[in-house]
Amino acid sequence: MVKKLTCISCPIGCELSVSLDESGKILKIEGNRCPRGKEYAITEITNPQRILPISVKVEDGEMELVSAKTDKPVPKKKMYEIIEYIKKLKVKAPVKRGDLIVEDILGTGANLVATRTVNKKS
Amino acid sequence: MRRENVDVLIIGGGAAGLAAAIEAKKFGVKTLLLERDRSTGGVLNQCIHNGFGLHVFKAELTGPEFMEKLWEELGNLDEVIRNNYTVLKIDPEKKEVITLSEEGIVVFKPKALIMATGARERPLNSLRIPGSRVAGVFTAGVAQKMVNIYNRLPGNRVLIVGSGDIGLIMARRLKIEGMDVVGVVEIMPEPGGLIRNVVQCLDDFNIPLWLSHTVFKIHGKERLEGVTIGKVDENFKPIPGTERFLEVDTLVASVGLIPQNELIEDFVEMDAINRGPVVDDLMRTSVEWIFAAGNNVAIHDLVDFVYEEGKIAGKNAAKYVLGEKLPEAKYRFERGDNVGVLLPQKFTGSQPFKMYVRSRKSLEKSAISFSGRTIRKFNWKIRPSEMIDLVVKNFEGFPDEVLVEVNQIG
């Protein structure tokens, strides 16, 4: 069986053909222009994962929200659970880019980190 | 009214303008950047999704991260940036830039000017859809600013019109924030944005994409109550019998970006297809002291490319100010088969440069040629929505007018 995928590792979006045997074992990966395409195809077939970009509420900040992301891809099947968890969070200003907001979010091994600086309301 | 002399003046504080400022400053010339918003960063501020910086920083960054890295690269921001300055007019004869800000009218007299004014969104009203002009209709960028900066949702149930990247990103974003995203309609037979965004924004969240579909009618008197969508034929005419009603209170339109060139289009040579100024590989326009970079030159796919262009403009504007004789742009590209957006349109041949081309059609296997000579082959599918970038370094034997063609092969 051949499965068609679009690699999302970068904006080029290589169209991948992944040949699988009956048991779902990967036999061949074609169409990738770099090694990341191969890696993507393997995780996409076995356990699809995504970086989650999101925002978190801020208290006393010059903005109401701080943008954040998971520092590693998290399993797609846990996505909604993680989103609901993050929605309940609130952080206190000031927040700096790279600040850790949640460590090992819901046991995924990924941390939620701030992606911008939000200063305290003056 | 106050007057101020400056060496390099940059209009616009998005990625192109910031990059231009970083580079110009390195040459020790007095550099100023005018930004009409409260702070710089442009659209990067609100693009909280990842996918930026793969070329420039070799890392997958979000918009705000990319922006803050540029701030850090620039160093002391207050020295270079003037926020809340709107440019009213450029006087090409007097070489003056007239601005309005909290201190009133200020007239800048730069030795070199860099246009980094970016693009604006095409509004849904430009599609001339029948119905009232109801509340609840937003462009994707406005919806994005509401959600990501101001923490406000535009409504409860939304249809996205147009599958450009911002539309796809917003479909996911609004879904994550709890809106009911009924789907995305795209009038073209193919998605307008990157396929990666179709995968990670729509497929991942089970949001339907209706290709060759558009909005036939807007329902409601004050607030949007629903839309009639349907299929279109190859000439984009509605096909009767394909109509369906969708109950939505919000429309988010991602129907294209328009380069902003009102300030220069009356006196700078413009390219009707790019909708931006004609530039050379040094990012010079047809007016000697005016340079340009970024989405005002042509709509780019990647901020990385915009940043690189800004740096080229900044460097050459500084050199111009310092009195260095810049080489003449003796070559010119002419558009041949299947070539849409193309830049630069002219080049000096003095150094390797990056060129960007959009194919007018999707092609399975193709080659790009310069006056009949194959420059590069593509063994993968190229699409109008994905800009081709290539480095041109061998200029030997080029005619003055180089015909660029993109053709199907094999």
State which percent range the strand residues of chain A make up. Answer: 25-35%
> Which fold name fills CATH's third level, the topology of the largest domain in chain A?
CPE0013-like fold
Shape of chain B: globular
Q: Taking all residues together, what is the mean pLDDT of chain B? A: 95
CATH architecture of the largest domain in chain A: Roll
Order of helices and strands of chain A: EEEHEEEEHEEE
Q: Would you count the extended β strands of chain A for me?
A: 10
Name the CATH class of the largest domain in chain A: Alpha Beta
Mean pLDDT of chain A: 93
- Biggest interface, CB < 8 A: A-B, 29 and 30 residues
Structural class of chain B: alpha/beta
Low-confidence regions of chain A: none
Structural class of chain A: alpha+beta
- Kindly provide the radius of gyration of chain A, computed on alpha-carbon positions and rounded to a whole number of angstroms: 18 Å
Tell me the major beta sheet of chain A. Answer: 5 strands, mixed
CATH topology of the largest domain in chain B: FAD/NAD(P)-binding domain
Percent helix of chain B: 10-25%
Characterization of the model:
The complex is a heterodimer of chains A (122) and B (410). Chain A has 122 residues and is α+β, with helices and mostly antiparallel strands. Chain A folds into two domains: 2-46; 53-114, CPE0013-like (CPE0013-like fold), CATH 3.10.530. In chain A, 17% of the residues lie in helices and 34% in strands. A five-stranded mixed β-sheet of chain A has the order 8-5-6-10-9. The longest helix of chain A is centred in the first third of the chain and has 12 residues, at 35-46. Chain B is an alpha/beta fold and 410 residues long. Chain B contains seven helices and 29 strands. Chain B has helices at 15-26, 63-74, 77-80, 140-148, 165-176, 195-202, 303-321; strands at 2-11, 31-34, 50-52, 61-62, 81-82, 86-91, 96-101, 104-115, 119-121, 137-139, 157-161, 180-186, 209-211, 213-219, 226-231, 244-246, 250-253, 257-259, 270-271, 276-277, 290-292, 331-335, 339-343, 346-347, 353-359, 366-370, 373-378, 388-392, 401-408. In chain B, β6 and β7 form a beta hairpin. In chain B, α4 runs parallel beside α5 (165-176). Classes of the chains: A alpha+beta (122), B alpha/beta (410).
